[in-house]
Model the fold of this input.
Amino acid sequence: RKLIQQIDYDMKNRLPEKRYIHTQGVAFIAAALAMRYGYNIKDAQIAGLLHDCAKYMGDEKLITICNLSGINLSDVELNNPYLLHGKVGALIAAEEYTIKDDNILNAIRYHTTGKPEMNLLEKIIFIADYIEPSRKKIPGLDEIRQSAFIDMDQTVFMILSNTISYLKDENEKEIDPVTVEALNYYTIERS
Ligand code: DGI
Ligand code: FE
Ligand code: FE
Ligand code: FE
Done:
C-alpha cells in the first residue's frame, strides 16, 4: 500500500474521530499551501497526517519517551507536557513510519510553538494546523485564512500573536520561550 494511505488508515484507527478529521483537514490544507508556494505535495500531506499522532499519549508517557530519547525538557514543557506532542510525534514518525525527511520531521516537531526561521514546510504545517476547515471559530480566523494564501510570514506572525494573547487571557497560561522567540522573529522579519 502507498505510504500516505497507510498513514491515513493508521491515524483513523489511532485518533478520536474529531482529531482524525482535524488531521485530514491539516493534510488537505497543507497540500493546498504546497501548491501555492511550491513544495512537494506528498511530503506536505504526510507531515499533515502525522503532525498530531502523539496528541493522545498522556503526560507521563510523553515525558518518559523524551527522557529515553535524550530530549532535554524545559520547565515549561514539564509543567505543560502536551507541548511535547510535536517532539514525540516526530520520533514516532521516524521510528514507526520510517520517515527520514528532516523537513517533515521538523514540521511535526515545531508545529505547536513554531520557531524562528521556519523553513517552507514548517510554515505550511504551522499554518495549516491553525486554519484547516474544522478548526473552531477563533477571532480573526477568516482574515488569517485569507492571508495564508497571500503572505506566509505575515500569517505566521498573526497566528503567533493570536496564540500568545489567547494564552495570556486563559488564566495566564505559561508561554514557551520558543513561542516568544518565534513571535519576535516574525515581528522583526516583517517590519
Ligand atoms: O494539537 P492542536 O490542537 O491541533 O494544535 P497545537 O499543537 O498547535 O496546539 C495548540 C495548543 O497549544 C493551543 O491550546 C495553544 C497551545 N500552545 C501554543 N503555544 C503554547 C501553547 N501552550 C502553552 N502553554 N505555551 C505555549 O507557548
Ligand atoms: Fe498539535
Ligand atoms: Fe498550532
Ligand atoms: Fe493539530
Remarks:
- Residues 59 and 82 are 7 Å apart (CA to CA).
- The radius of gyration is 16 Å.
- The chain has a mean pLDDT of 96.
- The pocket of fe (iii) ion (ligand 4) is lined by residues 22, 26, 51-52, 129 (CB under 6 Å).
